[in-house]
Amino acid sequence: MLAQEITTSGRTSGLLPAGRPSGHLSPTWHEARQLAFDCAVPLPPVDVPLSSAIGHTLTRDVTALQALPHYNSSAMDGWAVNGSGPWAMTDPGPSLSPGHARVIATGGLVPAGAQSILRKENGEIRQDADGRRFLELNDNAKDGEPGPGQHIRPAGEEAVPGEVLIPAGTTLNPGHIALAAVAGHDSLQVQPRPMVGIVLTGSEVVTAGVPAPGQVRDTFGPQLDTVVAMLGATPAGSVRIGDSYAEWLAALGGSAALPGRMPEVTITTGGTGCSGTDHFRAAVAALGGELLLDGIAMRPGHPAVLAGLPDGRFVVGLPGNPLAAMMALITIGAPLLAALGGRPLTPVSQVTSAADIEPSLGRTRLIPCNFIEGLAFPAAHTAPGMMRGLAWADGVMAVPPGGVQSGEPVPVIPLPWTQPAAAVVPSTYRARSTAWHA
Ligand SMILES: Nc1nc2c(c(=O)[nH]1)N[C@H]1C(S)=C(S)[C@@H](COP(=O)(O)OP(=O)(O)OC[C@H]3O[C@@H](n4cnc5c(N)ncnc54)[C@H](O)[C@@H]3O)O[C@H]1N2
Ligand code: MOO
């Protein structure tokens, strides 16, 4: 949902007219992340059946609908007894008179008057000359057994009615779901995940085999759905289109291309540039949309675009170059999906750089890197069209325009499939000063 539509949110976004040259100064990498986060508000909570709630964030406290357990029950197979033995055996009934005992199974309702449970291993049934049956302790029984309340699970032992069992904000695990079931709930109110449709563009893109000159093998189709799920969203399917404006318009319009529930977010790949086959901005303008962000002062990925459509949907335009696309996705796609999913913006850590990285006027450089002994080493093979560096990376350095010296802290963020950097360092490391080049 567009933040701008939510008058109570207090958040606003600076909208740019779509479809004409922006001519504006691109936001910095940090500004772009924040803008992509601030332009959306969490989707409204939904009720889902227990079995669908695992992994979701709870938006309303789960309370005990009655006492837990809700009746006094036996913790052992054996006999419910009233008073001290031997006990006269009686048939099932709601209460137990003094001097009497009754068979009970684990979990069975303890009759009124019963003071304890004698476990099966520690008693025996005998019969007198008149055929009456009595329960007696056997040699297994310890002195004083059964003591008052022994092997009885009292009602309310775990929770009193109305007690909060799982507070709102909890990420639900299978144990929480079992607890909610025990407490009598059939469904839970959770924060929904945004749905994301993917539009893969480019008539030169092939989906199998070794590409011929002029063709490229699709790098996004085989993995983008999974990354979207790693970013806390639900993949809603993908379509492939060529380079015509009509195909773009149909895909962003959504009707024919992505049937069913309209995804809140559409991610496009390619078409963010300024050639005759790049239709992102024109299609958004034709649909009455607005550019929330048009270009970012970063490399790779500077042509990335974020747009809002009149019906509240977002469109994230990833550049076609494979590494540029992934860097744009973590810069603006991840914050947008976090905001829609009611999650915080992933924090930027500081890790000590293991290399000198030269300045790049006005641009943050995003460089896949490896964390080794608390230091961030920039990876090789990280040009905008390359995947080798990213494939083995632990995270991404966001090198500021002024560059960084070996031994200085540098901002880093995790990849959707890696953990945040373990070592957050202000370090005195100055062991080497080799310059890094992509
Ligand atoms: N005159 C200018 N040309 C370019 C500029 C510029 O500022 N001025 N910026 C360059 C940068 S940086 C990028 S990034 C790209 C952005 O291009 P588009 O988003 O329009 O993407 P395309 O032109 O469609 O493709 C670019 C490149 O990526 C390949 N591609 C596309 N889809 C896939 C895919 N699914 N799998 C693998 N590779 C893909 C495509 O074949 C092209 O090689 O513009 C630069 N040019
Ligand atoms: O910045 Mo482009 O996005 O180099 O590939």
- Average pLDDT level: 90
Q: Main sheet: which strands, in order across?
A: 1-20-22-23-19-15-18
Structural class: alpha+beta
Helix content: 10-25%
Strand content: 25-35%
Radius of gyration from CA coordinates: 32 Å
Morphology: elongated
How many beta-strand runs?
A: 28
Q: How would you classify the quaternary structure?
A: single chain
Which regions are unreliable across 5 or more consecutive residues at pLDDT < 50? 5-15, 423-433
Written description of the protein model:
The structure is a single chain. The protein is α+β, with helices and mostly antiparallel strands and 438 residues long. It contains seven helices and 28 strands. It has a seven-stranded mixed β-sheet with strand order 1-20-22-23-19-15-18, with helices on both faces. It has a six-stranded mixed β-sheet with strand order 9-6-8-7-11-10, with no helix packed on it. A five-stranded mixed beta barrel has the order 24-26-25-27-28. Strand 25 and strand 26 (375-378) form a beta hairpin. The longest helix is centred in the last third of the chain and has 19 residues, at 322-340. The radius of gyration is 32 Å and the shape is elongated.
Question: How is the topology of this model organized?
Answer:
Elements: E1 16-17, H1 29-38, E2 46-49, E3 57-58, E4 62-63, E5 73-74, E6 78-81, E7 87-89, E8 100-104, E9 116-119, E10 123-127, E11 133-137, E12 152-153, E13 164-166, H2 174-182, E14 187-191, E15 195-201, E16 205-206, E17 216-217, H3 224-230, E18 234-241, H4 245-253, E19 265-269, H5 280-286, E20 290-294, E21 298-299, E22 305-308, E23 314-318, H6 322-340, E24 349-353, E25 364-372, E26 375-378, H7 388-391, E27 395-399, E28 409-414
The chain binds ligand LQZAQKY5 and molybdate ion.
